[in-house]
């Protein structure tokens, strides 16, 4: 019986299978590399896009911060202007009252009483001065009480002559400034009643 040597065929088949395996392995590695590269580029693109959006948001936020700062400065300037306008309006409104106040003080100040200090806080006036006697201070307070523009005098301090070494008593008192009552609007004269028309 003839013998057939199968070794070369088996070796060739083994080599072919190895070649196919290496080819498949190379293809798999190539596909894996391509897949990894695609994923890498995809995420790089996403990261780049997100960074671009972040930079845009930072720029917009910085712009908004500048605008908010400008608005705050404008609001502060507006508040300062309104405050100054309010002060000016109050000064203009109180100008007649100040004139009336000093006029009333001059009228109420009796002879022998001398003022040395004047302070005003809102509608409260505080005075300091010298007087020839306590009776003159009492007379000054009575005149303040009877005034229409000032009232409610309160004696805060009085020192006798022998304590001041000036021959005059030292006193401090306060009183309130009274707002003048608004004048009532003048009534319009009544229109005369119409006479009924005569019948023909």
Describe this structure in words.
The chain is an alpha+beta fold and 200 residues long. It has two domains: 18-98; 109-177, Gyrase A, domain 2, CATH 3.30.1360. The protein is built from three helices and four strands; from the N terminus they run αββαβαβ. It has helices at residues 7-108, 134-146, 161-164; strands at 113-121, 124-131, 150-159, 169-177. Strands 1-2-4-3 form a four-stranded antiparallel sheet. β1 and β2 (124-131) form a beta hairpin. α1 (7-108) packs across α2 (134-146). It is rod-shaped. The termini are far apart. The mean pLDDT is 80.
How do the strands and helices of this protein lay out in sequence?
Elements: H1 7-108, E1 113-121, E2 124-131, H2 134-146, E3 150-159, H3 161-164, E4 169-177
Antiparallel strand pairs: 1-2, 2-4, 3-4
Q: How many β strands by DSSP?
A: 4
Whole-angstrom Rg:
51 Å
Tell me the series of helices and strands, N- to C-terminal.
HEEHEHE
- Helix coverage percent of residues? 55-70%
Counting DSSP H or I runs of 4 or more residues, the number of helices is 3
Give a short account of the largest sheet.
4 strands, antiparallel
Number of domains: 2
Secondary-structure-based class equals alpha+beta
Anisotropy-based shape: rod-shaped
Largest sheet, order of strands side by side? 1-2-4-3
Extract low-pLDDT stretches.
Answer: none
Alpha carbon gap, first and last residue: 168 Å
Q: What fraction of residues sit in β-strands?
A: 15-25%
InterPro entries: Extracell_DNA_Util/SecSys_Comp (IPR052534), PilN (IPR007813)
Coiled coil: 54-84
Region (Disordered): 174-200
Protein name: Pilus assembly protein PilN
